[in-house]
Amino acid sequence: MDAPSMEYALRDKVADILDRRAACGECAAICPMPAPAGLDTVAPTALTAGILTLLRGGVHAQASRWAAVCSGSGHCIPVCQQGVNPRLMLALARASELGQETPAVRRQTGFTRFGAMTRGVRVLSRLQLPPATKRNPIQRWFSTPAATS
Known about the structure:
This protein is mainly α. The protein folds into 2 domains: 1-100, no CATH class; 103-144. It contains 8 helices and no strands. The chain has helices at 3-20, 26-30, 44-55, 61-69, 86-98, 103-127, 131-135, 137-143. The protein is globular. It starts with a helix and ends in a 6-residue tail after the last helix. The relative contact order is 0.11.
């Protein structure tokens, strides 16, 4: 799928979500992330209505924070009665906010996030290595006798 058709497909998905008016709050009520993020979970409908505001190009601080901290757990997907994928709805809200930034800011954000991801991959991969390999991986590689058949 080329870039223009992908963009049109995402716009259609946003329009579909807005048409369905998916602001019942069931997804926010079951989501594990609002409480640890310090968001008000007393009125979950306010969070989902805020997400719709973000999708329309508006501003809503609480919904923006919720979209930013979404872990993608998928707990929200089966509870939506309107047939909307709330995880996708939050991802689209995040993307709509990124689209409002200047290209230079988007580039810097992407560069920073990519750097954080590569550091995480490096740390996680080193955690899986045995201690002897971590001490001197090059020497261990060359000093290990080759397996014979």
